[in-house]
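Note to self: keep these together.
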Amino acid sequence: MNYPNSSIHVGVGNWAKELLYNNPDVDEIVSCNAPWHNKQLCNFPANSIKTYLASLKYIMLSDEVSNLKKNNYTHGIDYLGSRQGAWLLKRIGIQKRYGVRGYAGGDNWCSKCIDFKIDDHVSMAGVNFLDIMDAKPKLKVNLRPRIFLNKKEIESADINWEFSQNHLNKIVIAPGAGFTEKSWGDNSFCKLVRIILDKTKNKIAIIGTTKDAKRINISHSRLVNFCGRLTLRESASIVARSDLVISNSSLAMHLAGAFTVPSITTLGPCYDSADLHHKQWGYPENIILGKEVSENIKNISTVNEVYTKVKSILDIKDVT
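Structure:
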């Protein structure tokens, strides 16, 4: 809108590329499997020497970066704000480099930076790049992820949910997490699922990767475990046609946000503030449960606390 002759190229890891399919604002989806701040590829701690060496090898020697150099990009945004991201933009010859000051470094190699603010929502932080690029949106900016599902994908979700039983609430549960400390715990998810199945007439779909398939090992006529059986877009379709999503702080939380589906995010022990996490990552219809150390709440949420929120959101009572 501000730059009508520009084109937008999004660099993203291969695992997430399909989430950008059909997006009318993206001219090209570019493979950028960078080995930093990336749970899919990071084999070592983010600030370790080994990660820096792997990053330098990728930036200096990888075919992906060599291909990026050929595109003659004029502007580049390192949305995260890291040293490696700034190095990558400089390596591929981008003159106008935009980064983040005060998060993970790299601002010394950028033309301009936004300032990291710990209680800014990640979407609003992205909008702040418009200011330093001298671009002002003429329309209200949508601060949600945008995923453009097609008719076939929506129809497949309806089939998977068996809409002949449309009178039942449809709950998605995603028990996967990037690492153990982020997870509410497999045992807690299993207990919650059993309570929901025993005390209500809801339907449950479990989504995640193949590695998540055994996290909730429960057999029931109103539960289907789709872990490892769906593409990301098919999982997004399942979420879009659901009534509630329950997950760790993970992709499923943001899929729910994309489709304005109510969600409960159960934080693991590594998070000290559910309130701060909501400010950074949450959505209006999203409830985040966890510790609040500043208020002397030092334990993660119990199964009963989460189940109480489930009943409140869906406006249901226990079946007697």
